[in-house]
Design brief:
Helix content is 18%, strand content 0%. The protein has one helix and no strands.
């Protein structure tokens, strides 16, 4: 499998137009697009909304605090 990276911009309407010659015609293709930094803004908005949601207020109750900083073991990412 071969990967192709293209640098492009979206227009004012958010449409992405690619001008790239492929070796295949009349074929299905798969396009992978990674958006930079914009996903973190969405994640921050989601976390802000969840943290303000009253459905999670029960987590502030003292009886829900059953773990301390000394519980558990650190993850070993070298395995």
């Amino acid at each position: 499998m071969k990967a192709i990276e293209l640098i492009s911009r979206t227009d004012k309407e958010g449409q992405l137009r690619l001008d790239y010659q492929l070796d295949k015609s009349d074929s299905n293709v798969r396009v992978l697009i990674l958006l930079e930094d914009e996903l973190t803004i969405e994640e921050q908005s989601w976390l802000k909304g969840v943290s303000a949601n009253p459905a999670f207020d029960f987590l502030n109750n003292e009886e829900e605090s059953i773990y301390s900083i000394n519980d558990g073991k650190p993850l070993d990412d070298k395995k």
